[in-house]
Amino acid sequence: LPAENVYHYLDQHRAQPHFQQKKRNGNTSTDSEGLTGSPKRGRKILQTFDNYAVSLRKLTKRVGDLRKENKKLKQELKVSKAQSKGLSDKVDHLKDVIKELVDTNLISGDALSALDKTKKTRTKETELVRQT
C-alpha cells in the first residue's frame, strides 16, 4: 500500500468516530456496522493507527534519505573509479617510458623491477578492498 493511501484513509476516518456512542448495557456501544465494543477500545485502535501513520511517515522519509545517500555514494564511486583508471593509465605510460629508457641503457633494470613490485602490491591491496 502506498503511504498516501494510508494517510488518506486515516484522515478520512479520523473525522468520523469509529464507535458511535449508543448506550446499551452500560458502557458498550455499537458502531455503524453493528459491531459491539467499548468507546475506549475504539479510541485505542484509532491511536494505534495514528502511531502507525507516524512511524510510516518517518520510515518513508528515512528510505528517501537513504536512497539519496546511496545515489550520492554511487556517483562518488564512479568518480573514484574514473580517477583510478586515469592513474593506472599514467602508471602504464610511465612503465613504458622506463622500459624504453632501460632498452636504450640510460637507466638500469633495477628501477623497472622495483616498479613491478610496487604495482603487484597495489593490485593485492585493490583486490582486498574489492572483497570487503
TrEMBL record:
Q: Which SUPFAM superfamilies match?
A: N-terminal coiled coil domain from apc (SSF58050)
* Residue span of region Disordered: 11-42
- Renumbered to this chain, the Polar residues biased-composition regions fall at 26-35
Q: Which Gene3D superfamilies match?
A: 1.20.5.10
- Keywords in UniProt for this one? Coiled coil
Query: Coiled coil: which residue ranges?
Result: 56-90
Which protein, by its recorded name, is this?
Uncharacterized protein
